[in-house]
Write a structure and sequence with these properties.
Number of strands: 0
Strand content: under 5%
Number of domains: 1
Length: 167
């Protein structure tokens, strides 16, 4: 009798998300580059969506987004909604046009990560009237975007390993 491994794969994804959620919020664990830390859960959601079908991608995108919202200390719902929409768009692109590979995941991530973090900055910093938001963007948000994008590389290989061996 063949065992359905999707339960174990989803459990491994959930465990990965929870571990990196805790590590993301742990002070002085991840080194800051130019005063910012990466958002681990965005590349995790993007790399999971590269391999999974629509429903698991939406669920993990919403889960990663909700945890990012909780960890950011406010604005509950923004990351959950945007990551769910981005994961849905990514799955649609992979089902209809592209084959998931490191190059295609990188291209989608180089578009998605600045879009999500830039939209967050625009809505909750710029339009909120935060003083010196240009300085904040240049010296904090650009490094966060680059740092988060670079995290796609290890998470791509981790999630590819989980998908291949637990499928």
């Amino acid at each position: 009798m063949r065992v359905n491994r999707s339960f174990f794969r989803y459990f491994a994804y959930t465990l990965e998300i929870l571990i990196f959620y805790v590590l993301q919020g742990t002070p002085n664990f991840v080194p800051e580059i130019f005063g910012s830390k990466p958002l681990f859960l965005i590349p995790i959601a993007l790399t999971i969506a590269a391999r999974e079908s629509v429903v698991p991608s939406l669920i993990f995108g919403a889960f990663c987004g909700a945890l990012t919202d909780i960890g950011s200390g406010g604005n509950v719902g923004f990351f959950a909604i945007t990551l769910t929409l981005v994961c849905f768009a990514e799955v649609s692109i992979y089902e209809n046009y592209l084959v998931p590979s490191f190059l295609t995941v990188g291209i989608i991530s180089v578009i998605s990560v600045p879009l999500i973090i830039g939209l967050y900055f625009l809505l909750f910093r710029f339009f909120a009237g935060i003083a010196d938001c240009g300085y904040l963007f240049v010296y904090h948000y650009i490094s966060r975007i680059v740092y988060t994008f670079l995290m796609v590389v290890p998470f791509y290989y981790i999630n590819r390993f989980l998908y291949r061996h637990l499928n």
